[in-house]
């Protein structure tokens, strides 16, 4: 471990925000460069570390109403098609359900800020730094990172606690986008005081 990369964060001013570790996204394949199980394991390690220090932990999930009328339907060149979600698709993975004090945010789009109470909850607690991880790096995590940056939060992005459909996509975001908005670290490079 490179001690020069250890990020020491103030537990009172930092929140862990875990994106979309729910049955559907964890069950999708492929995942690269990390399998979903590794991402969940590292997110649990971070959650435990943050919880032990009394830091604010947020689990974000995406969900829609039964009729789907609250889902986004943009005009795109690659229409998403009509999803056929199985029962329980939007339930957080069991490993996260063990953490009863985490704040749950339900989003209806890629990012976790727009249309949710995330910014309100962070500001009321005096949070100025968000640590992000989850699935998918290029959608939910990246969009939330950009929103956090636009809301003037300091960002720390946990590269080995996120994944997406290809290593190339992950590498592009982690090497080009995230460093311009904050710091890219690994699970073992985060310390709270």
From TrEMBL:
InterPro entries (UniProt xref): Isochorismatase-like_dom, Isochorismatase-like_hydrls, Isochorismatase-like_sf
Domain Isochorismatase-like: 14-188
Record bears the keyword Hydrolase: yes
Coiled coil: none
Recorded superkingdom: Bacteria
Keyword hit for Transcription: no
Keywords, sorted A to Z: Hydrolase
CDD domains: cysteine_hydrolases (cd00431)
Pfam entry (one): Isochorismatase
Family statement: Belongs to the isochorismatase family.
Name of the protein: Nicotinamidase-related amidase
Species: Sporobacter termitidis DSM 10068
């Amino acid at each position: 471990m490179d001690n020069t990369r250890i990020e020491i964060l103030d537990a009172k001013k930092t929140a862990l925000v875990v994106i979309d570790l729910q049955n559907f996204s964890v069950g999708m394949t492929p995942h690269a460069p990390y399998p979903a199980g590794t991402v969940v394991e590292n997110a649990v390690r971070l959650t435990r570390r943050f919880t032990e220090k009394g830091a604010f932990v947020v689990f974000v999930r995406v969900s829609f109403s039964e009729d789907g009328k609250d889902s986004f339907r943009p005009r795109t060149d690659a229409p998403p098609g009509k999803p056929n979600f199985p029962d329980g698709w939007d339930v957080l993975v069991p490993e996260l359900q063990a953490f009863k004090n985490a704040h749950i945010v339900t989003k209806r789009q890629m990012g976790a800020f727009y249309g949710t109470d995330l910014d309100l909850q962070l500001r009321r607690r005096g949070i100025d730094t968000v640590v992000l991880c989850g699935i998918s790096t290029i959608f939910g995590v990246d969009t939330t990172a950009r929103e956090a940056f636009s809301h003037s939060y300091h960002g720390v992005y946990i590269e080995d606690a996120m994944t997406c459909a290809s290593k190339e996509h992950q590498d592009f975001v982690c090497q080009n986008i995230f460093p311009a908005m904050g710091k890219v670290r690994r699970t073992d490079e985060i310390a709270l005081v």
